[in-house]
Amino acid sequence: MELFKDWGIDENPFKTSPLEPNEDGTKLLIGRTDEIEMFNANLFNTPSLVTVEGPNGVGKTSLINVALYKCYENYYKWYKEEDEKNEKERKRKRLFIPCYRNFQIDPSKKIEDFIDEVLTEIAQTLLKRAKDLEDLGFEIPDDSTSIDKWLNSPMISSFQATLGPVGMGFTEAINSSKGFEKSGFRHKIKNWLQEIFPAKPGGGVVCTIDNLEIIGTSDSAKKNIEELRDSLFNISGIRWVLCGASGIVGNIASSARLKGFLHDPIEIKEVNTHCARSIYHSRIKYCSHNDSFYIPLSEKAFIVLFNRLSHNIRDTFKYASDFCMYTYYKMSDRKWKRESEKDICFEEWFDMRAIQQHKK
Ligand SMILES: Nc1ncnc2c1ncn2[C@@H]1O[C@H](COP(=O)(O)OP(=O)(O)OP(=O)(O)O)[C@@H](O)[C@H]1O
Ligand SMILES: [Mg+2]
Predict the structure, then answer these.
(1) pLDDT, tens digit, for every residue of 286-311?
(2) Among the four 181, 186, 192, 227, which has the fewest Cβ within 10 Å?
(3) Nearest C-alpha to atom 19 of ligand 1 is from which residue?
(4) Same domain flag for 220 and 354
């Protein structure tokens, strides 16, 4: 009972998860050329924290992920294309590596655990990129093998897996594990970053703290962010992007401790209808590997949703998936024969959803 596979499509083309910092994310991001340029200008030209804000579901996280991946990829390509490399030239260019995971402030989590979580992910990112870094002429410290063995040992992995409200704090795991005291672990990662990114302000692993709207409702979340100023935001070799709903950057910047640390926010606005059409087609193309597939939602219906949902792409995808599900269970042979029938069915569903919403 895999509806999209039954229709000749590999997976749901309307998945609501953000685009990832990889090749596929780059292919699927539509538009946003100006925003990426602005993002790079902020990242490359000042040491401040880059900030991004905009309405829900417009594509903030996707934009950051793809922009960072492109920075990394461009550096790699540039390095590989140049024949003669000299040290001076390399120091002039800056390498930014997107951290493999984005972070969120959890007011119930101890700040010390958050710091360890971030440093762990940075170490994992560097380990995963170790081969690339060597290709790019960076020296991988001898320590990396021991960090790798330790971080990826079954014991630590199981501690990481239990992180969360019911799990043991990661700090305790680090403290109680053989060979690495907490301070030793932090020290090693900081040294490693220093070796790879010695220049100031230089490149770095770029970490994103996402969904910062939590600080609007939680004083302890805001306090946590402030505390990071002197514990994480000041480590050389790590750059920061803060992201959240419209207005959130002003809220953080109003804190005396963070004044002057933040860039003015890059405002992400809704994409236009032309982009939405391209998003519809590129998603379907990406998920279907030949022309013999069926999709019950027409481009026209997709745009109706997009407009009705105030250009929120995430919500548009959610409703597009809901409609696909609805038609799948409604159709006896699982297919509509003609294009016009798709839209009739969509209108029926749309009216029904609108009535249900109204009743709530
Ligand atoms: N420019 C784009 N091109 C193609 N798809 C996009 C684009 N921007 C966003 N999307 C898609 O829209 C959905 C929402 O994107 P994303 O999660 O990045 O938005 P967001 O603004 O971070 O949302 P939230 O407010 O929930 O954090 C995702 O499925 C993503 O893949
Ligand atoms: Mg987001």
Answers:
(1) 999 788 889 999 999 999 999 999 99
(2) 181
(3) 59
(4) no
